[in-house]
Task: inverse folding
């Protein structure tokens, strides 16, 4: 079966199991950038707690950038890696401000091609393909395919990428293989399935998606 046909059939099966995800209104790019930095190596619950702490403590992105680093570290500590994330957030805000001449906005990326925007975002400290893709997908509505833990795991289980593929390699392969019209919905559906059914340990196989799982087919 050709890759595109396989991916489209998986997508259809996922739609039969889960509701079709609606694309939300375009989110503020700096908010998405900061939230995604906070999400690194943690779960959504702790990311959201850390972001709420930021909102409660500071009135503006300028305040966040100028905050004492140890203070900001404490504010975002619940998301883990407090010192690292505080430093990355402040550096990202600084570089955005310098790029725009004083504004905290990444709207300037709209004038760039997807590859140019991706390169600019990945030039920020601690921003890799996943973070860049999330900003491009959720802020700019670009046809990119973010790869998080769930997507990485399922891409392997469903034979879309080699078993030994790194996260970066999986991103490169899936970006190329997934048709543009499916990139957003398949990303969301794979996350839902990874959370709800096909977990990392002792995955269940009680949905029609099981036929795509190489681990299931080998048993």
Result:
């Amino acid at each position: 079966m050709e890759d595109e046909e396989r991916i489209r059939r998986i997508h259809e099966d996922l739609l039969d199991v889960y509701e079709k995800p609606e694309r939300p209104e375009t989110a503020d790019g700096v908010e998405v950038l900061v939230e995604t930095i906070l999400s690194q190596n943690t779960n959504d619950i702790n990311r959201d707690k850390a972001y709420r702490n930021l909102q409660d403590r500071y009135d503006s992105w300028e305040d966040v950038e100028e905050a004492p680093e140890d203070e900001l570290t404490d504010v975002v500590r619940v998301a883990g890696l407090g010192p690292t994330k505080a430093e990355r957030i402040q550096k990202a805000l600084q570089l955005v401000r310098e790029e725009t001449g004083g504004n905290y906005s990444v709207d300037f990326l709209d004038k760039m091609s997807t590859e140019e925007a991706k390169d600019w975002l990945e030039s920020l400290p601690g921003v890799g393909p996943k973070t860049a893709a999330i900003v491009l997908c959720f802020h700019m509505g670009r046809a990119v395919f973010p790869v998080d833990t769930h997507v990485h795991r399922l891409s392997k289980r469903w034979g879309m990428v080699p078993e030994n593929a790194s996260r970066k390699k999986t991103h490169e392969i899936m970006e190329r293989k997934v048709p543009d019209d499916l990139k957003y919905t398949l990303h969301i559906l794979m996350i839902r399935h990874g959370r709800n059914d096909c977990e990392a340990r002792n995955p269940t196989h009680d949905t029609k998606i099981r036929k795509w799982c190489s681990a299931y087919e080998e048993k």
